[in-house]
Design brief:
TIM Barrel, nine-stranded parallel sheet, 11 helices, binds iron/sulfur cluster
Length: about 350
């Protein structure tokens, strides 16, 4: 990637060093964490067409949840003891999505981000912490929802220009890096990650991790990095990376990123049991009530299975909030979000148990 338009530069020596890392160089984590969420796919519209993605629907087939749908999912999450409302959509639905724009208009919103703000309000009012993953975002878009989110995220995926992102509406690594920087400027605790097996090379994986480390070095806002393998689905039949590849790249992530950033391995997608000695310390958000809408063919594991994984690793398993402990303070969270965290609800109970540990 050409880093001219962003405020980072990647040193070739650092890439060479990252490429030497192997699992044997890594100390395993001393605990594993996870969060309980409800997955709320606000819209399946997306202006891009990544070839491995089964999430987006083309114009004419994409849907938009109504406020009633959102309330119903949120209520199920509250009743099931979740703490996180995970809002996703593809990148801004563009002009081809007439029906989505018509629906937004009917709901009184000029943009999907305005509607996301309303959706976050529904979650906050019910006592859940919004964590939004709405793809690339401008400063104005992110500002609109920053006070209403405990944390946010976007997968960097890779800094490389890969064929899987090409086409008439190509997703740009520069924009993703800019989104990470914008989150830092707005002081938003942030989740990102890299996607393995979409045509990137080993140097690209190292460069992507070093780019994340540099952005975090400037803003201190990256709370976790997901190391995710691409998986077969109705649009992608080119398979997943090998376990050996996942072991090496996970170890590379642990060695390259600062210790305060968690390394997350999604147990419904990655061979987690084979990665326990490679530095992972988080098993992501799992949902007791909704499917993984981004990877619908891959069921969430039950908490019991996570306990079994932790037991195999010989470490304790701990439930966390969507926003990590080091960000649970005035510097990072709005009064609105803190009100939920200190409330008489599931989130408040979890927070008080974290604070007393
Ligand atoms: S991966 Fe994300 S950006 Fe790409 S098509 Fe799917 S929803 Fe859109």
């Amino acid at each position: 990637m050409n880093f001219d338009s962003v405020n980072i530069s990647i040193d070739e020596t650092a890439i060479d060093e990252a490429l030497t890392v192997r699992p044997a160089d890594i100390e395993p984590a001393t605990e594993l964490t996870y969060a309980k969420n409800v997955f709320i796919p606000l819209t399946t519209a997306c202006r891009y067409t990544c070839t491995y993605c089964t999430y987006y629907d083309p114009p004419g087939q994409a849907s938009l949840l109504t406020p009633t749908d959102i309330r119903e999912i949120v209520e199920r999450g509250v009743k099931s003891g979740c703490t996180e409302a995970l809002f996703t959509f593809g990148d801004d639905p563009d002009d081809r999505y007439n029906e989505i724009h018509a629906q937004l208009d009917e709901l009184g919103h000029g943009s999907i981000h305005e509607y996301l703000a309303e959706a976050c309000d529904i979650a906050l009012d019910a006592g859940l912490l919004p964590h939004s993953n709405p793809g690339d975002q401008t400063h104005a878009q992110m500002s609109l929802i920053s006070e209403r989110n405990a944390s946010m995220g976007v997968m960097l995926e890779t800094t490389a220009d890969v064929q899987a992102h090409q086409g008439p509406r190509a997703k740009s690594p520069t924009q993703r890096v800019q989104t990470l920087e914008t989150a830092g400027k707005l002081e938003i605790p942030f989740t990102t990650g890299i996607l393995i097996g979409i045509g990137e090379q080993w140097r690209d994986r190292a460069e992507s991790l070093l780019a994340i480390a540099q952005i975090h070095d400037q803003y201190d806002h990256i709370q976790e990095v997901i190391i995710q393998p691409v998986s077969n689905n109705e649009r992608w039949q080119e398979g997943s990376p090998s376990t050996e590849t996942m072991r090496r790249v996970t170890a590379m992530a642990r060695a390259t990123l600062p210790a305060e950033i968690s390394i997350q391995s999604p147990p419904n997608l990655a061979p987690v049991r084979d990665l326990l000695d490679c530095g992972i310390d988080d098993l992501g958000g799992i949902s007791p009530v909704t499917t993984d809408h981004i990877n619908p063919d891959y069921a969430w594991p039950a908490v019991r299975e996570l306990e079994d994984i932790a037991s195999e690793a010989g470490v304790p398993l701990r439930e966390r909030l969507p926003v990590y402990e080091s960000y649970l303070n005035d510097a990072w969270l709005s009064p609105r979000v803190q009100q939920v965290i200190r409330g008489d609800n599931t989130v408040g109970t979890k927070f008080r148990s974290i604070a007393s540990d």
